[in-house]
Amino acid sequence: MKEEGSEHNLFTARKISRRKWLLGGAATAAVVMVQTSLGKMVQAAVPESIVPPLTDSTSVKEALIVADPTKVPGRTPSVSGMPSPYEKVERLPTLTSSRTPLQDLYGTITPSALHFERHHGGIPDIDPAKYELVIHGMVDKPLVFSLADLKRFPSVTKTCFIECSGNYRSGKEEMSPQEICGLTSQSEWTGVMLSTLFREVGVRDKASWFLAEGGDASVMTRSIPVSKGWDDAMIAYAQNGEAVRPEQGYPARLLLPGWEGNTSVKWLRRIELSDAPFMTREETSKYTESVKGGMIRQFSFVMDARSIITFPSFPTQLERGWVEIRGIAWTGRGKIIRVEVSVDDGRSWVNAELQGPVLDKAHTAFRYLWKWEGKETEIMSRAIDETGYVQPSYQELAAARESKGGYHFNPVVRWRIPRSGKVVLST
Amino acid sequence: MYKRILINRYVVALLFFVISAVVIIVTTINRSRSKHPDKFGIGRAAKPEEIAALDIDVRPDGKGLPAGTGRSAAGKLIYEAKCIACHGNGEKTETPLLGEALFLNEVPGAEGASNGVVASSEKAAFAKASSEVKASGNAKASSKGKASAKKSSGEKGDRSSKTIGTYWPYATTIFDYVRRAMPYNAPGSLSNQEVYDLTAYLLYRNHIISENTIVTEQSLPQIVMPSKKKFVEDDRKGGAELR
Description:
heterodimer; A: mainly beta; Sulfite Oxidase, Chain A, domain 2; Immunoglobulin-like; 3 domains; 5-stranded mixed sheet; 5-stranded antiparallel sheet; B: mainly alpha; Cytochrome Bc1 Complex, Chain D, domain 2; about 45% helix
């Protein structure tokens, strides 16, 4: 082909074509021929993903790239971009969940591809053209809304976190923020206020609860107080500027800002207004926690204030000198008003700097500039929200609950920095 | 004097007119800009049969339960055919189950049940209910419970100890959940009859009802589950108090 021929001339290379170059590849290392600035070809190990895959019969993992990108024209635009092949930031998946790599992120928006997952019957494949949301029960007029219908209503956009209430793990030193509490993520959500739909169907005064039901294989159900529906609940169909991702409830999900993630029912297919909770499996045998006196606490919707230092954290190898301690703090009860950091095992606390604007029920970035002289110490952060709630230590929380863990467990996370600078979780 | 009063009257009338006009204009603008209509007329009426096809939920008061009868003997056969592979048969296993244990042959110890959720009085009640309990059973279950509590918390913590008998506050939830989501590889495939029979079997294996008790749409909501009394509503309110 003529175009491929000219491409060869352009790259002064034999084994590359535009098509192959654009296709990209998996991120493994490969030994390739590299053109130096002097035009000489040398061998070098580079991520294979930046090397065009050899789709023809050759078995040699060898291709040609340029060492000096100023000497050849770069790639042309494409229909959809990808992260740089040099970046390897990933969720940590199991069969039923995947965790956000908090230690690898910047700012407070979680890239949609890295939003944590927790589903109970897999990710359903839903045709948006066939999607319907039914609202019925204690209403004047039961209605069915298509996705197009939902998008016709006045829209709202809100940036907030979603956190699974079972989001605390510990037990060994080699644990990253992703492993400890990676079941929290933040997006800019767009959709229609549930209150708008409540008015449309005419929710009756006696309705005090509603059932939210998903269209996945678990047909997920949660009972929600109607007051949350009138307050700030949304039906979200967009996430970070694009359609909600399949893992996050495509084509539309419930969004209950500040409440435990399970209540923001994904793939929402039905809402039933009622005068009593339904006592579904998830709100009785699952998302409940043991509290003082051998009791089991139920309908604990709101996520308490919490924070974690994401740098330095495991597996950081810390260098002596100036360190910008970085982290995120969040609360389901409104805004974070203060984050305190301790760099001396919790003996003294100083205010961290908050990155504004501080949003309601949202991950809030904090920073604290510190000079590490190489002495062994433990560093930690604690969040304070606008209700005056102070994130507790593990010991305080365990004593108050008479429990060692479980849902809604949000203790201060301590990082131990030994003289070697190899940061580990303090256990 | 007279002239002055007249002018003042005109001024007052003019002022009144101007203020009224401004109020009317501002109100009109506000209305057109930001006030939602109460209804937009978007969406179509839901047909009763459409709602009926989706409305599968069952409440603790029995609302939503179809008419039917469940027998544990029939439920046992269904359980062994469709459930046992993931949920086991109440035995303690070395390898974790794919699903969770819904009942245990041996009575869980106090610590075995989710960090002390099962109180000792409950333990005694179970010991009374089950004739299979052996003295060594408690000790074994207790040490296992300690190990799982130590492991780590989170959505998978203490799976083996939160059985229907120790942790589920309403019997109706069994019917609702099994019908909507089980078995895992064929969710929503069970008939109402199968779900009733399974419900009876699960209640029997958890020592809630006897082997021959028949479960019906009237009796299921009447069953008082052992853990119900331990459930309390959330009392956290933010602020300084830690709960």
